[in-house]
Give the backbone structure.
Amino acid sequence: MVELAPSILSADFARLADEVAAAERGGGTVIHVDVMDGHFVPNITLGPPVVKSLRKVTTLPLDCHLMIENPDEFIPEFADAGADWISVHYEACRHLHRTLELIAQHGMQPAVVINPATEVAVLRPILGMVHHVLVMSVNPGFGGQKFIPYSLTKLRQLRELRQELGLSYRIEVDGGVAHDTIVSVVENGGELLVAGNAVFGDGKAEQNARELLDTARK
Ligand code: DX5
Ligand code: ZN
């Protein structure tokens, strides 16, 4: 049930294939790819060309978290590059329903993300359309930030809503997930656990991934 999604944001980009392989050996089962455009968030990272390269070195699902304005414009390119899951921010989509449909039409799993200041309740009308909901537990833009405790309430709300509505979306959490937070994240409903700094921060991705999963599954 609980899966680890190492976020390559904190990896050594010059050794990306090795870093991904190490995280995979340590038990990571989803590769989380942070796409930032310098507009929606105050940082710039990578885009479809890097996704295309990653596609050649792993068979794990590529979980592309788009922190960009106008995501609709780039969905076809991510599909061509080999992305499996695409998550878009509620805050970046003027027509969220349409964007989620567009992602599905391109053969990828659609997902929605909410920032720390956005309530879960706004997602209710589209929850039946998504493969997963991503709760940001830090303000997006950078790795290595501190976990925001109110995120745990959102995880519980999403678990209750899923039950109430009879849906099957998965619950993902991103930001500040590490040894000191991972147990409460899981207890409160986190299932897809994104971790950047805690996996790649010190060059020991395999060991870190294994230890995080051990802690999460205890
Ligand atoms: C932040 C990104 C995260 C980031 C998490 O905007 O969405 O995926 O890599 O990093 P950590 O796990 O270090 O908080
Ligand atoms: Zn992310």
The helical segments are 16-25, 48-57, 75-81, 96-105, 151-165, 182-187, 197-200, 205-217. Residues 7, 32, 34, 65, 174, 194 surround zinc ion (ligand 2) (CB under 6 Å). The chain has one domain: 3-217.
